[in-house]
Amino acid sequence: MIIKLSKITIKKRTLFIFVVLILIIIALYINIVRLQCFNSNRLSVMAESQYSYKEDLTDTNFLLFDCNGKQLINYNKKYYAVISPDIFGKDNIDTKQNEILTLMYILRNYNSKYDLSKEEILNSSQKIYYPIDENTYNKLKNIKDIKGFYTYIYSESEKGDTWKLENLLMNNKKPDGSTMKSPKSLEGQIFKKTQNNKKPQLVINRDVNGKIISQKTELPENNTNVRLTVDKEMEDKIKDILNNDNNKKYSQIGVVLMEADTGKIKAMVQKDDSKPNINLGASTNHGFFPGSIFKVIVEEAGLDRKSIQADEKFSCRGFYEMEDDKMHGSLTPKEALAVSCNDVFAQIGAKVGFNNFYDNATSQGLFQKILGLDCEEAGNCEVKDPKVSDGTLGLMSIGQNIRITPVEAISIANTVANNGVYVKPTIVDSYVNDDNEKIQGIDINERQVIDRSTAQIMKDQMLNVVKNGTAKQAYMPECVIGGKTGSTQRMETVKNSNVVKEHSDGWFVGFFNIKGKVYSMVVFVKDIDKDNDSGGTTAVPIFKSIVQKLNNN
């Protein structure tokens, strides 16, 4: 049966087909414009990548500078020979056989497992990277005519000394490598700032036959890097002192050095960087007992609130002293601080009140994270409601039953040296470009926390501790030095066991003036001899040695 279509129907269908064709042409045109104008860069990169190899030249995606622009990360050179099997096995028919044999011989001579004649190598679908030494690299780098083969040098950051500050900051994984650090940590903030950075690359161009025709290094632009407040030269000098023969008997020592007026940490060093960072209290239960260095906080609170007077007399009854028969007689707070009388400061603490000296402590950064590093511990009060009646308030007044970290402790001296102004310590100075030019600065966080007059009283008293008291070994006629010693005993449970061990530690927090600039510093010596040593005989001599070395250069 033949169906005849009307002229109107034929016209409609013809028009429909015409419209469809026009729409297809328009769509094709739009797509061509899109590809040429908007995706041309991406497509050209894809096309060019078919004729080039790209290799990252380092494993770090940002630079870490000290305050003087010196790079803090050390790198080790790694040398590689690279084979691209699909090209090497198929496109070397016209290549001189003696060159291929030379390549094979050099690789096999370095490592017998580097055998390019093996079938599994030639059939591999991935590039093969052969680690080699510098001597082998020098022999291979001039071989240019073998297709699918090249060499390059890679700079690998040193992974040793896990707990060293710069290594902590460069790594966004926890020291055990199992999990990522908190996004809220300092490392997490740095990672967020630098996550869009690009690594420098070696670009090796080849022709359509696989022969290498040129190579160049591509340096990233607009990267964000980190400049720290620390001075590498100062840190190296302190490290030398911690490792000298005089300190051989101490397993671990921590030192934090800071500018008094800015809060910029110029050095944060520990003797053994293979152990958890002692200045941050890493792997501890909220840090360490501060002992007598905490007496500064207690007296400040009393003077500021007028609950004690600077010339008030207290009678030492021998309570809380390390020796049962030790009695100091009648003492003012200044005299009690100089001899570090526990009994007098237990009485001062009772008059001041826990809430008052606790508030004074927290206003100066104690019992909280300071730098915000992932492994950093925050100090803590172990007794929440200390009382005079059971002796817990007295113990807390002399730095027992509380814990702080060395990086918290430095502010005890710094607030006094800075005329009552607390400046929060900081380790990051600014974010910078590759030329160490500032992109974004870090604000100084400061506030007046004790009266200027109170700070002056405490400054005079801490100068007296060095001249006439427990820190006499730090006295230097040519240099202004003030501070407070601390000696503590603590009981700690050995990790992964029920064994409890007794420890004794030595502290010295102080301030000093070099060439018109005021610095604060804390020295913490872990595991001293509890029967023969104190903060005055361990931390104080180290403090003095550091000041002398910095003052002489």
How would you explain this protein's 3D organization?
By secondary structure, the chain is of the alpha+beta class. The protein has two domains: 52-62 and 76-156 and 184-227, no CATH class; 228-551, 3-Layer(aba) Sandwich (Beta-lactamase), CATH 3.40.710. The chain contains 17 helices and 21 strands. The strands form seven sheets. It has a five-stranded antiparallel β-sheet with strand order 10-9-21-20-19, sandwiched between helices. Strands 2-8-16-17 form a four-stranded mixed β-sheet, covered by helices on one side. Strand 20 and strand 21 (517-526) form a beta hairpin. Helix 9 (232-242) packs across helix 17, helix 10 (295-304) packs across helix 12 (342-352) and helix 11 packs across helix 16. The radius of gyration is 34 Å and the shape is elongated. The model is unreliable at 42-49 (pLDDT under 50).
Short note summarizing the structure:
It contains 17 helices and 21 strands. With 553 residues, it is an alpha+beta fold. The chain folds into two domains: 136 residues, no CATH class; 324 residues, Beta-lactamase (3-Layer(aba) Sandwich).
